[in-house]
Amino acid sequence: MDQLLAMRVFRSIVDAKGFSAAAERLGTSHSTISRQLKQLEATLGVQLINRNRRRFALTAAGERYFAAHVELNGRLTFDAITALYSAALAGAGIAAFTRHTVQTDLARGHLVHLLPGYSLGTRHYYALYPQTRHVAPKVRAFVDHMAEHYRER
Description:
The chain has a domain at 3-68: Winged helix-like DNA-binding domain superfamily/Winged helix DNA-binding domain (Arc Repressor Mutant, subunit A), CATH 1.10.10.10. The longest helix is centred in the N-terminal third of the chain and has 15 residues, at 30-44. Helix 1 (3-16) crosses helix 2, helix 1 (3-16) crosses helix 3 (30-44) and helix 2 (19-26) packs across helix 3 (30-44). It has a two-stranded antiparallel ribbon. A hairpin with a 4-residue loop joins strand 1 and strand 2 (56-58). It has helices at residues 3-16, 19-26, 30-44, 60-68, 81-89, 99-108, 137-151, and strands at 49-51, 56-58. The chain has 7 helices and 2 strands.
């Protein structure tokens, strides 16, 4: 389960005052919204919303969970990793990096590891190079090195 997505779904349900309106806002189906909420409730071990066909109401736990939700305003996007890294170091927001990229600044206290139990999932890497009969030795060496490096992870 993508917990951040499930949290966003919960917030949308409450803001939209219903499952159907939340599904429409998020561009998905009512059943997907319902499934995400059930998974979030199972993860948290509490029921967040009392629901039936005609209406829904937040439970006490749902009210506390919603009140604790912090709305992040604004969105920065970067197409250069160095700009993103500089923005994170300057405190401009939250960013996702590989551990290898940030380990020095984490150790120095310049960055803080948020959501330690959260994983972005498995990443796939592809090496694209022209299909030729004879691959240049330096290209073959690089591809082999990267394959070995990521196989270990």
